[in-house]
Amino acid sequence: MGKLDGKVAIITGAAQGMGEAHARRFVAEGAKVVLTDLNEERGQAIAKELGDNALFIRHDVTSPAEWKQVLQQAEQAFGTVTVLVNNAGILGPLVETTEFDEDEYLKVCAVNQHSQFYGMKTVIPSMQKAGGGAIVNISSTAGMVSIVGAPNLAYVGSKFASRGMTKHVAVQYGPDNIRVNSVHPGYIKTPMMAAATDADGGGITAQVPLRRMSDPDEVSSLVLFLASDDSSYISGMEHVIDGGLTAQ
Ligand SMILES: NC(=O)c1ccc[n+]([C@@H]2O[C@H](COP(=O)([O-])OP(=O)(O)OC[C@H]3O[C@@H](n4cnc5c(N)ncnc54)[C@H](O)[C@@H]3O)[C@@H](O)[C@H]2O)c1
């Protein structure tokens, strides 16, 4: 028996990195999974590999209209949606606040923060029809503290916003049996991280008490737990997974 038998999940940003790892784990645990991303080629290939319980939809998470289409196609393929993982995100440029271009600021907020609002607004009615659900919003340690090396204030601001919106929606929809939690990863080995650092992690592993970066699959274990009935009384909370980074 899988931990997600009978669940229908939407995972955004699932064509690579952590989103891909979550999609693979969810299907292995019995869920039917809709993978969405801008990267159609990789997304389609992963969904094909995962078989009949996976469907890829090209999706820009900053578009409310595309969210509606994603929900419609997901319900058509698999029925009401019971899990949403708002994972898609971007770093934006590594710049100081006084040098930060306004349009770049808005773009980071749109992808990291506004998308999570659109996703929750769109999918909650489907969860209400299903009698409940679990939402996992992917924030960051940058949504807990402003770590040295955080790329810019929009990244930190949008990840703090994700944490706050999580609590707001958890309180509002708890009576509908909808649980909402945020996940705050530290340094995880993904293409995003590779683009931001050099091969040894830019020396950042020395900052981490466990002295290593995490594999995406280690984060999948936490996301799986929060999506599954194993966490049936956990809602409105932030879950940090950072090898001890922010404990210092
Ligand atoms: N890697 C880390 O160390 C780390 C740490 C903390 C938090 N995070 C967060 O975890 C999440 C996943 O990060 P990752 O490292 O796997 O990143 P990644 O860059 O490897 O993958 C992100 C995916 O999101 C997709 N995406 C970007 N913009 C999109 C849009 N507008 N619409 C749809 N899809 C879009 C990309 O195409 C990509 O496939 C992000 O929210 C990120 O901020 C990452």
UniProtKB/TrEMBL annotation:
InterPro entries: NAD(P)-bd_dom_sf, Sc_DH/Rdtase_CS, SDR_fam. GO terms for molecular function: glucose 1-dehydrogenase [NAD(P)+] activity. Its EC number is 1.1.1.47. It is an enzyme of class 1 (oxidoreductase). The keyword ATP-binding does not apply. It comes from the Bacteria. Keywords: Oxidoreductase. Belongs to the short-chain dehydrogenases/reductases (SDR) family. This is Glucose 1-dehydrogenase.
